[in-house]
Amino acid sequence: MCLAVPGKITEILENPGLKMGKVDFGGVIREVCLEAVPEAQLGNYVIVHAGFALSVLSEKEAQDSLAAFRELGDLETELSPSQPD
Amino acid sequence: MRYLDEFRDADLVKNLVAEIDRTVTQPWVIMEICGGQTHSIMQNGLDQLLPPQIELVHGPGCPVCVTSLELVDKALAIASKPDVLFCSFGDMLRVPGSHGDLFSIRAKGGQVRVVYSPLDAVKIAQQNPDKQVVFFAIGFETTAPANAMSVLQAKAMGLTNYSILVSQVMVPPAMQAILGSPTNRVQGFLAAGHVCSVMGYWEYPEIAERYRVPITVTGFEPVDLLNGVLTTVQQLEAGKHEVINAYARVVSKEGNLPAQKILKQVFQVCDRNWRGIGLIPQSGLSLRPEFDDFNANVRFDIADIQTKESEICIAGQILQGIKKPPQCPAFGVLCNPENPLGATMVSSEGACSAYYRYARNESVNV
Predict the structure, then answer these.
(1) What is the model's pLDDT at position B338?
(2) Of B15, B118, B249, the CB nearest to A76
(3) How far separated are the first and last CA of chain B, in Å rounded?
(4) Best of A54, A58, A71, A75 to disrupt the B interface by mutation (most B CBs within 10 Å)?
(5) Are B273 and B279 in contact (CB under 8 A)?
(6) Residue B27 maps to which CATH number?
(7) Residue B115 lies in a domain
(8) How are the residues of chain A apportioned to helix, strand and coil, as percentages rounded to the nearest 5?
(9) ipTM of the complex
(10) Residue range(s) defining the domain that contains residue B33
(11) Domain identity same for B60 and B73
(12) Tens digits of per-residue pLDDT, A54-68?
């Protein structure tokens, strides 16, 4: 229930009283309530639970953390110069 | 899928495992709170990649598992009524009550439907004005906003045939209950990332300070989980107990304020009985009195519930990280996902189900 994968907003539906949108989860498209993510734009990735978007994914934070994990590998190579390729 | 595949990258996993190897010098016990994290750890074999000094124990973050037996029995009683259309998340259907489960109610003619979202249950109520539609509103802080929104939506639509049976629970009181127990073994926590996406993590520094445990806000993919372990081990090795957000692409310190507003509008904090664990004060959410019309507990007078729990099942000790599934005499023998004795064997977030499904016990036939 707490598992969720990021989905991409493909459509924003301005229903009166309830902001909804269509979100693409790797090809599966679902209607999702966007009421709690007023900042969400078309093309943003959102984390959705029980049909309710809880967070807009920060693409900058994602890239920054991936870069840091790649650097760990570079560091390891530096620290272990004697290891054969 | 974007923002998913990158966090399952094998090279990054190797980098993080190597860094954990370099950092660890002594044994540490770390608990991942969320059952979704437990399943990801088992499915991806992360427990087998970690150095032997690091023991991961599995937390109570499985809403299906901790929903009290009394509430499950109440759900079964309500779902049995002829004028009721009972809606639930799919995981809940096979959870054993004292006598049977929701599947068995359906087999006897009860109208039980699986929905993806409580908002779908509201639509069902709209389409079935001659039925009482009841949604089993279980979950942690992740499902609370959606469940609350369903009540607000039903009210706005003027529906008089929609109600929810609430079993909302909250993570921080459970962490404190575990840490305060004399049998506690946990030295560091991987906090549940998606719970924090709603509530933020401003509540955690006080817990970290009081019990002197590091807490790392952690995601669900292999790279996220290993980064959570690394961050926690770095703190443990350095004798620190801070709260660090290792899931910044999704979680902010203050959390999702609009979602919190919706949640607080509909729910209030209450004491809650956790299955297998017992009463944890101020650990649950219940409907505010102004939403009594949408409260299944008020609408359906279900009295005289005599609960009967399995005498063999050790789910409660597993949920607190005291024991592991293979230590249960029934595991894989008397108890399996098709015939579960306890809810931890049912759910896609339950620890027993994870051990069974990913064969973490050689005696298990799969």
Answers:
(1) 87
(2) B15
(3) 30
(4) A54
(5) yes
(6) 3.40.50.11750
(7) yes
(8) 25, 40, 35
(9) 0.90
(10) 5-64+171-245
(11) no
(12) 999 999 999 999 999
Q: What whole-number distance in Å separates Cα of residue B355 and Cα of residue B361? A: 7
| CA distance, residue A9 to nearest chain B CA (Å) | 13
Joined tokens for residue B78: 């309500």
Number of compact structural domains in chain B: 3
The rounded distance, in Å, linking the Cα atoms of B157 and B167 is 24
The pair phi, psi for residue B219, each rounded to 5°, is: -85, -160
Query: CA-to-CA distance for B13 and B232, rounded, in angstroms?
Result: 16
In a domain, A18, yes or no: yes
d(CA B153, CA B145): 12
Residue B127: which residues within 8 A CB-CB, separation 6 or more?
none
In chain B, what percentage of residues exceed pLDDT 90? 87
Q: How far is CA B336 from CA B34, B226, B302, B328, B332, in A?
A: 21, 29, 30, 12, 5
Q: What percent of chain B has pLDDT over 70?
A: 98
pLDDT in the model for residue B291: 98
Whole-number pLDDT of residue B269? 98
Chain A residues with beta carbon closer than 8 angstroms to that of B12: 66, 69-70, 72-73
Nearest-Cα residue of chain B relative to residue A73: B15
Q: Where do we find the tokens 């994914």? A: A57
pLDDT at B305: 81
A15 assigned to some structural domain: yes
Q: Please list every residue in chain A whose beta carbon sits closer than 8 Å to the beta carbon of residue B248.
A: 58, 61, 64-65
